[in-house]
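User
Class, as today's exercise, I want you to study this protein, comparing sequence with structure tokens, and judge whether sequence predicts the tokens.
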Amino acid sequence: MLQEKLEQLVKILEKQELEDSLQDPKLYHELFAAYFYLDDLVNARFLWKRIPVAVKNGNQELEHMHKIFQCLCKNEVVELYKLLDNFKWSRSVAEIMYELKDKIRMDTIELIGHAYTSIFENVFGEMTNLTQDMIEDTCKRLNWEIQDGPQPRLILPKKPVADKVSVLNAEDQLQKLTSFVSFLEN
């Protein structure tokens, strides 16, 4: 739902950027934040290049967003969380930046579930920016095992169950296509 709203917002803001000769920093803040959330780093890069120097100079929020852009490009999640947490965002982008942080966390947890057979608790905490209690709650919710022992404990993610897709062999597909075509001809 937020994804769809931001896609519409991007269209509106891009159109407004083209039509208006005013160089409103708020427009660039919102567009940058929307590109981040939509994981559209290519357009975020080009946005940074086309923002007038006069708007960039002295605009702390744009400079901070550029640092976030660099972290996203380099996949530096630990630094990214610090940048997202340690800045007072304007009201126009605060919600998007909060949702971005949450989305990155969920994507990282999903990636860990698919890619890791085991991960140390401290590494998991750094990658997801979760506290000790939140790590335990997340692991319980996902039915992941945390091995008892000295710190850092080992987390054993379980691969998510993939939805079963019905697979038809070539003969079955050909048979269905043939019956469909003969139905259309008659």
